[in-house]
């Protein structure tokens, strides 16, 4: 929630963990196919989301200061509103649903001046079943996936007679990638506090959240514009860049991932990263019948990086004489 119109006061309320499971939503089609990803769309036979909604409005002040509930929309009703509107949604994306439902709240309740909705996709994967044609994906049975998931935040505000989008961001969260060899970390500051040895071929395990914003938010909200970028494509770009590059650090790796995303998707304005270093501890360098090593979970504390990039970073990179080839 922004604090404008509210002076310096924080004031909002809402509902978290609104689980929405919609079957047979509109299939996602018309996306740009990129070399790094086999993703071509999604059937949306099952469309699952865990939503958090927060609403604001000056008229809610007396509910806090006087116990006056006359304008309070119960958070239980908000949950019902979201669930019932999932039946009316005609689009194919989580971002689109958040925008649709947020607008309906503002249109329905004049006391609401702003709505922020935050969602995490509940990922379901097709199971493979036997058939006379070999193994094929079931169109009826799905398994709950515990891997990474897509995320979205949409914020809308009333502006006179209109409703404006004031914030929109898409994400892939909790991506966990391990590369068994071909990463290093050397050349860092060495002083009396340094005990870490330099490494030129470490296994590198990263936890990664990637966020993106569109130049024109409508491209991310309206799947019929054919400019939607799916979280699976961003995930696959990250994996491809990790595979292809011998990275000297996580810092440089996420920069290269960002360049590749910006290059593939000129409709995006900004990419940002939060990464976490979970590199395993090496216990046995070389097993008896090599190659092979033995590792165990790392001990805390864990390092992290945060970085954001725009199309200007890609332009600067492309205008720079390159030694190592282009992204
Ligand atoms: O990729 C890395 N970046 C760092 O900044 C860092 N620091 C550290 O101890 N290990 C690593 N690895």
TrEMBL record:
GO terms for MF: urate oxidase activity
SUPFAM superfamilies: Tetrahydrobiopterin biosynthesis enzymes-like
Involved pathway(s): Purine metabolism; urate degradation; (S)-allantoin from urate: step 1/3
Pfam families assigned to the protein according to its UniProt record, in alphabetical order: Uricase
Catalytic activities: urate + O2 + H2O = 5-hydroxyisourate + H2O2
EC identifiers of the protein: 1.7.3.3
InterPro entries attached to this UniProt entry: Uricase
Keywords attached to this entry: Oxidoreductase, Purine metabolism
Record bears the keyword Thylakoid: no
Family: Belongs to the uricase family.
NCBIfam families: urate_oxi
Function, in words: Catalyzes the oxidation of uric acid to 5-hydroxyisourate, which is further processed to form (S)-allantoin.
Name of the featured protein: Uricase
Species of the source: Paenibacillus shunpengii
